[in-house]
Structure formats: C-alpha cells, structure tokens
Amino acid sequence: MAKIVGPDFIALQVRDLEASRRFYTDALGLEPAPQSPPGAVVFQTAPIPFAIREPAVDLARPRSMKPSPPPRRDAWWSDWRSTTHPNTGVGWTWRKSS
Fold first, then answer.
1. What is the pLDDT of residues 35-94, one digit of tens each?
2. Distance between CA atoms of 87 and 22, rounded to whole angstroms?
C-alpha cells in the first residue's frame, strides 16, 4: 500500500494576483520562478512547489453554507418501488413487509 508523505504542490487562489505576488516576495522573501503560466505566479520553493493564481471561480459570489436536508428514510423504497422492470416495462409488484 502506498504511504502518503504530504503534498507535492500547493497553489492558492487569490483575489489580486499582483498584490499577492508583492506580499509573498516583499514580506516573506520568496523568489518568483523564471517562468509561470498565465494568471499565476510560481515561486522557487523546495521541496514543495508553491504558487498563487487567479481564481477559477468568482470568490466574491456569496454561496449558501446551508447544508442539504437529510434524505427521507423511506425515499429509497418509494423510488425503487416506482421503477419498472428493465426487460418488460412492467412495474414491480413487491410489498413492503411490516
């Protein structure tokens, strides 16, 4: 079995790429790599590469933190009972035992 030893790359999504680059270079002393992909800054860190990048999603858009309601306890039965037989197209005639 493989043993997990830790991450092999870390990238953070940031709202302002240039301000974040200045923070990591000026305040923390990290050096940018000679080349980075568009919309990102890769830093020369070892043993784990570190980068900052423009977000893949709109970070300003509010998202609901409301959890989904739990499934109804008997939902599986009504869903299963309402299906039809794949070969005949006839509904199942099973009854739930008491």
1. 999 999 999 999 999 999 998 877 676 666 666 666 565 555 555 455 554 444 444 444
2. 65
**42 CB-near residues (< 8 Å, 6+ apart):** 32, 33, 35, 36, 49, 50, 51
For residue 36, count other CB atoms closer than 10 A to its CB.
15
Alpha-carbon distance 20 to 41, whole Å?
9
pTM here is: 0.56
Question: How many domains is the chain partitioned into structurally?
Answer: 1
CATH code: domain of residue 48? 3.30.720
Range of the structural domain that residue 17 is part of = 10-53
The DSSP symbol for 84 reads B
In angstroms, the CA 16 to CA 89 distance is: 57
